[in-house]
Amino acid sequence: QVQLVESGGGSVQAGGSLRLSCAASGATDSIKRMGWFRQAPGKEREGVAGLNMNGVGTSYLDTVKGRFLITQDSAKNTVYLQMNSLNPEDTAMYYCAASGAWFYPPHLGDFDYWGQGTQVAVSS
Length: 124
Fold this sequence. Notes:
Elements: E1 2-7, E2 10-13, E3 18-26, E4 33-39, E5 46-52, E6 58-60, E7 68-73, E8 78-83, E9 92-99, E10 113-114, E11 118-123
Parallel strand pairs: 2-11
Antiparallel strand pairs: 1-3, 3-8, 4-5, 4-9, 5-6, 7-8, 9-10, 9-11
C-alpha cells in the first residue's frame, strides 16, 4: 500500500503562484508514475500533470502547459506541482495519485492510489 498526503493549497489572486507537494509513504518502491489531478465543482476530474519516476517523460494538460511544472525529489519520496500564472479557471480540488505501472503520457491512464486532496482557489 502507498499513502499520499498533499499540501500547499490555498487562495491566491490571478497571476499568482502556488507549489503543491505530495509526500508518498509505504510501499514507495512500487511507484512507477505519479500525477496531479484536479476537480472543480460540477466538472469531471482531469489529469493536470504526470511524471514517470524513472525520469523519462512528463506530460501536461494542454491548458496548463508552460504554467505548471511537475518535479520529483526521490530522496524525500515527494512530488511537487509548481503552478504559475494562475487564473480563476484553475480553481479546483487538486489530488495527487500514484501508479505501479509505466504509462505515456504519464498524466493519463489508471492510477492505483490517491491522496485526500488540497484546495486551490484563484480569485480575479
